[in-house]
Write a structure and sequence with these properties.
The complex is a heterodimer of chains A (474) and B (104). With 474 residues, chain A is α/β, with parallel strands linked by helices. Chain A has 16 helices and eight strands. In chain A, the strands form two sheets. A six-stranded parallel sheet of chain A has the order 5-4-3-6-7-8. Chain A has a two-stranded antiparallel sheet with strand order 1-2. With 104 residues, chain B is mainly alpha-helical. Chain B has a domain of 68 residues. Chain B is built from four helices and no strands. Chain B is flat. The chains are: A alpha/beta (474), B mainly alpha (104).
Chain lengths: 474, 104
């Protein structure tokens, strides 16, 4: 792939824009600009490539232009149509497509030689680089595709087939870890074999199939609460796949952009693990399970909406603590309505306490509440809101558990050291939750059993509606 | 790929990985998802490979399937690119609280 020098300069500009874009995406003030710089970098890269083809004369525009248009339209519609609640799933799906695209380019390159026997294969080093890069790109790319799709269904919680709801399974005995290692080694052996049999279809398909299975069994044992970490890791993979594809066609911008995303994605994965007080090997290899089976020996009598409504009357300050359960029942609009009624009827001051890892993805609560038009200045980050709890009359916890479990303050147990929302310091605590069951960490929550705690057992949306009606009727 | 080009490419690869490690340091939690989504859109750079692949493969005439595979790669990569940047933009607008969505 000989490219004239101006093409290299175009790719250099594009790579620089990606670097600046990624850098700026990490700071709240500059993030929107960062995203635009990234998009500009992509535009420069595509324009450079297309112009180069045009100048060289032999471009097949029908294939290229229609591909660009079809992909852009589908992508744009998906991005615009998606509900805010479905955003994490969409990111996972897009990520899978990115991995698949890299793997398909690799497949297309290898398939050329299978399809057209007259095409002369490169030899020596060139062939080795081609087959190794194509094999690794396929391994990482197909793995990213199947892993991301499974992660998407895990974020959704399940699939509906003919009106029946099937929960996405989480399954992974510890021997599965050995299977992962064996399959990875198998693919590496197949890649090695492919160097001496570059036109062998069976090797090619075996690599694709094993890589796809690998993606599934890597994600299968990981619980829903850890999905953000997994999606972030898969994002890193899709970058690496693009970089390997860059080696196949000897293209600098693919190598630079791909490895940038691969490395920064990995760092982001570590940052997210740290915020959840977990380590990456724990997330990936420690089998899930057991925790939910912990038997509960204590009981707590549930409260009802009328009782909570009466407590809310007269409260001067209410802090809402949203969690995973609010996202699942999608009751953010009811929560907003609750806050509005309190403000109008009793002139109550209402704020929201946002835990850094509440919900399915970091920032998930911000996005959900923004969708319900909750004013941005009412969403307060954990460290800023915690000092306010002692003077708060009522903390309303909606579907959150581990993020406000006082057990995290002790030095023992899986939650030890995790920063929490100090909801237990409020004068009254209302918890809306389906049951007393333990959270993801598998630790019983003392907060549920305190005298000042009122439990509203039920689905978030249903309970919020009942609560709103009860307050209106007061 | 000549040995010189290969060494050059490996140099780029290694240096970019180091740069990527340094690029992301402290990121506030609310930006984790947009950052992931934006970086994900950048990984759609494989569209460049797909474009080149589609062009070269189709040229042979006898390599129709390869051309179609590359075409599919263009479509998927463009979904990743356009969808990724658009969705990141939407998220950032919401989180930043400006450009509040009206209607819709």
């Amino acid at each position: 792939m000989i490219s004239s020098s101006w093409v290299s300069i175009g790719y250099l500009i594009s790579a620089s824009l990606f670097i600046l874009g990624l850098k700026k995406l990490g700071h709240p003030r500059t993030a929107p600009v960062g995203n635009q710089l990234g998009a500009m970098g992509m535009l420069v890269a595509v324009l450079t490539t297309v112009t180069d083809m045009y100048l060289k004369g032999g471009a097949h525009w029908e294939l290229i232009i229609s591909g660009i248009i079809v992909g852009s339209v589908i992508g744009y519609i998906m991005a615009i149509k998606v509900e805010m609640t479905g955003m994490p799933e969409l990111v996972a799906l897009f990520n899978g497509f990115g991995g698949a695209a890299s793997a398909l380019v690799a497949l297309s390159e290898s398939w050329k030689y299978i399809e057209d026997g007259n095409l002369i294969l490169p030899s020596g080093l060139e062939l080795e680089v081609l087959m190794i890069a194509a094999g690794l790109s396929a391994l990482v790319g197909w793995m990213t595709l199947t892993g991301s799709i499974l992660a998407m269904f895990k974020l959704k919680g399940g699939v509906e087939i003919r009106g029946k709801w099937f929960r996405t399974p989480t399954w992974g005995p510890s021997w599965l870890n050995y299977v992962k290692i064996i399959l990875t080694l198998a693919v590496l052996v197949l890649i090695y074999l492919s160097i001496s049999n570059p036109r062998d279809q069976e090797i090619l398909f075996s690599i694709i199939i094993i890589s796809s299975i690998l993606g599934i069994i890597i994600v299968l044992p990981i619980g829903g609460a850890d999905m953000p970490v997994v999606v972030s890791l898969l994002n890193s993979f899709s970058g690496i796949a693009a970089a390997f594809t860059g080696f196949i066609i000897g293209n600098s911008v693919l190598i630079v952009a791909g490895s940038l995303v691969g490395a920064s994605g990995l760092i982001l994965t570590f940052i997210m693990c740290k915020a959840m007080n977990r380590t990456l090997p724990d997330v990936l290899f420690k089998s899930f399970g057991g925790s939910e089976k912990e038997t509960l020996t204590r009981t707590k009598v549930g409260s009802d909406a009328e009782e909570v409504a009466m407590m809310a009357d007269g409260a001067q300050k209410v802090i809402i603590v949203p969690g995973y359960g609010m996202a699942v029942s999608q009751c953010q609009h009811q929560v907003k309505e609750f806050a509005d009624i309190l403000q109008e009827k009793f002139q109550t001051e209402v704020k929201y306490a946002i835990h850094p890892v509440a919900g399915r993805m970091p920032g998930h609560m911000n996005v959900l509440l923004a969708e319900a038009n909750v004013p941005y200045d009412q969403l307060i980050e954990m460290d800023d809101i915690n000092p306010e709890f002692p003077e708060c009359d009522m903390a309303v916890v909606i579907g959150a558990n581990d993020t406000c479990n006082p057990a995290a303050r002790s030095n023992e147990g899986p939650l030890a050291g995790m920063p929490i929302i100090d909801a237990d310091k409020a004068r009254t605590v209302v918890i809306i939750k389906r049951s007393l069951s333990v959270g993801y960490a598998g630790v019983d929550n003392d907060l549920f059993y305190e005298d000042k705690t009122m439990m509203l057992f039920g689905d978030g949306k249903k309970m919020m509606n009942e609560l709103n009606t009860a307050i209106k009727e007061l | 790929m000549t040995p010189e080009l290969l060494i050059g490419s490996i140099t780029l690869f290694v240096l970019s990985i180091f740069l990527g490690f340094e690029l992301i340091t402290k990121v506030p939690a609310m930006l984790h998802t947009p950052l992931m989504s934006g970086a994900n859109a950048i990984s759609g750079i494989s569209v460049v490979g797909a474009l080149i692949g589609a062009n070269v493969a189709y040229e042979g005439g006898e390599t129709l399937v390869s051309g179609l595979l590359a075409f599919l790669a263009i479509v998927l990569a463009m979904i990743n690119v356009i969808g990724g940047f658009a969705v990141t933009n939407r998220m950032l607008n919401m989180i930043a609280g400006k450009n509040k969505r009206k209607g819709d």
